[in-house]
Amino acid sequence: MIVVVDERELVKDGYTSLFGREGISSTGFAPSEFEEWVNTAADNDIAAVEAFLLGQGQQAFSLPRAIRDRSMAPVIAVSDQPSLEQTLALFDSGVDDVVRKPVHPREILARAAAIRRRLKAISNYTDIGPIRVFSDGRDPEINGDVFPLPRRERRILEYLVANRGRRVSKSQIFNAIYGIFDEEVEENVVESHISKLRKKLRKKLGFDPVDSKRFLGYCIDWS
C-alpha cells in the first residue's frame, strides 16, 4: 500500500486514482489526519505500507520524523517548487528522495523499490558503547532508539566516532563539516555545535562521552 499525504484534495485523490490504475492499493490523508494516524495506527497497518508520498502541507517537514518512529518504508517528497533550498530542506527533514511534479506513479514505485534495495544492503555503521552511528546520513541510535540530531551536530558526532581513540582539533572538525574553502562561517561555530551535542548526549546517556582538552582537541571513546 502507498500512503499519499497532501492538503489538496484534488492532488491526493488524483494520486490514489493513478496508483489504482497501476494495480497498487493506496490511501490518502490530509497532513493533520495523517499525523494522528501514523502515531496511533496498529503495527500491522503500518507494516503494510510500502512507501509514503508526501506532498504539500504545513507539517511537511515534521512528518518524516513521525514516520521514522513507526516505519522504515521509503519516504518520498513531491516538490512543486524547483528550488535547491526546498530540496535540501526536505532531505534535512528526513525524506529518502525528492521528486518534482509531474511524476508518473511508475517512477515513484521504481524509486521506492530502489530505496528498499539500498536499505537492505546497508550495513555501514559503527558501534561505540550504546551509540550506533551510521555512514549513510541517518540519525544515530542510542540503545536502539533513534537519536535525532541537526545535520551539523550529526556530522560532528560521525567525525568524532570515525576518529575514536584519538583527539581532533577544532580546525579539523570545522574543515570536515564546513569544508576548507568556506570563508563565510567562523571556525568558532564548531564550539557551539559541540556544546549542544554534548548537552544532548549527557541528557540521553547520563554522562558526557566527549572528552575535551584545551589546545589538544576533542575525542570520543568507550572503555
TrEMBL record:
Enumerate the InterPro entries for this protein. CheY-like_superfamily, OmpR/PhoB-type_DNA-bd, Sig_transdc_resp-reg_C-effctor, Sig_transdc_resp-reg_receiver, WalR-like, WH-like_DNA-bd_sf
Q: Enumerate the Gene Ontology biological process terms.
A: regulation of DNA-templated transcription
Identify the Pfam families for this entry: Trans_reg_C
**GO CC annotations on file:** cytosol; protein-DNA complex
Q: Which residues form the OmpR/PhoB-type domain?
A: 123-222
- Which ranges of the sequence are annotated as binding DNA? 123-222
The leader peptide range reads none
Q: Which GO terms describe its molecular function?
A: phosphorelay response regulator activity; transcription cis-regulatory region binding
Q: From the Swiss-Prot or TrEMBL record, give the protein name.
A: Winged helix-turn-helix domain-containing protein
- The protein's organism comes out as Ferirhizobium litorale
Taxonomy, top ranks, is: Bacteria, Pseudomonadati, Pseudomonadota, Alphaproteobacteria, Hyphomicrobiales
